[in-house]
Structure formats: C-alpha cells, structure tokens
Design brief:
Length: about 170
C-alpha cells in the first residue's frame, strides 16, 4: 500500500495539489502557446464562447492574472489547469502565457481536470458522465468511491454514467 495519503474529496485534491497556488520555490515561466496542447482528459467539450471572449477582453486589457498549470510531455506541455485562460490568450494573440510546470502522473491529471471543472463551471450531464468514466478507469475506482470523491450520492453517479448508454445523437443534443 502506498504511503501517499489519498485525497478524500476533489476539494481536498485541489487543495493538496495547490492548483490555485504558487508553491514556494516554483517559478512562473512564460511558455509559448505553440508548445501547449489541451488536456486530453479535459471533461468539458463545450466552452461558452461569450465567456471566453469576455475573458479574452480582460486579458487584453489587464494581462493574465493567474498562471496556468502545465505538465511537461514528450513534445511540449499539456494543460492541467487553465484551459479557458489558454483559449482566451490565443484569441487576443498572445505568444506566451504565464505558467507553472509541475510533474503529475497521467491519472492525477485526469482527476484534477474533473475536480477543477466540477467546482468552477457546470459541465453538461454528458461531459460529467464522460469525466466520471475516465476517472473511474484511470484510478480504478468503484462508483461508491467516485461518489465519495465528488461529494455526490452513488445513485447520482450511477444515473449520470447511465447517460452514456443513450444513442449518440441524443447525447449530442
């Protein structure tokens, strides 16, 4: 059994990994937007264009207030936290973005992406179901264990996952 303490909930996970904090000794680097790829585990498929454009306008006027969190991969970086800031920065034509580079296991990247999106902006029910499925698969969790992590009932998790059994045309509505 690992000595690493498992986070009890996704809130604990975000706090444990200091997603919104710059840790002592960390350096904020300007990373080229060309070297950054979206998180393959990003549960959100639909981004509110109006809100991204509002964020882009704010970034144009004031700059990026909070660095994004990146994970180094073979050919650059993937976003762990901050995809909306990344997209808005692309819109206004920035060449670089303030970033913190951290090393995470792949499964942890999926878990953090789900946790952050559940806490920040509402996912569609299908996005939530897909995210649950990815996290359960990567972390080898049961529906009960996932329910505890996300602070939902097991029946909520079960019913949400059931949406993935709907025909694809219904899921895409």
């Amino acid at each position: 059994m690992s000595n690493e303490k498992k986070a009890r909930t996704f809130t604990d996970l975000l706090q444990e990994h200091h997603i919104d904090d710059v840790l002592e000794g960390e350096i904020i680097e300007e990373v080229s937007l060309r070297d950054i790829k979206p998180n393959p585990f990003q549960p959100r498929r639909i981004f509110d264009e109006e809100k991204i454009n509002e964020l882009a306008q704010s970034i144009k006027e004031h700059g990026v207030f909070q660095p994004i969190i990146l994970k180094r991969v073979k050919n650059g970086f993937i976003i762990v936290s901050g995809e909306r800031r990344f997209r808005a920065s692309q819109i206004v034509g920035l060449k670089t973005i303030p970033s913190i580079i951290r090393q995470y296991e792949e499964a942890k990247v999926a878990e953090i992406a789900l946790a952050e999106n559940l806490q920040r902006e509402n996912l569609t029910p299908i996005e939530e179901a897909e995210a649950y499925k990815i996290v359960m698969s990567n972390l080898k969790l049961t529906q009960n264990e996932l329910a505890e992590k996300v602070g939902k009932s097991r029946s909520h998790v079960t019913n949400t996952l059931g949406l993935l059994n709907l025909p694809e045309e219904v899921q895409n509505m």
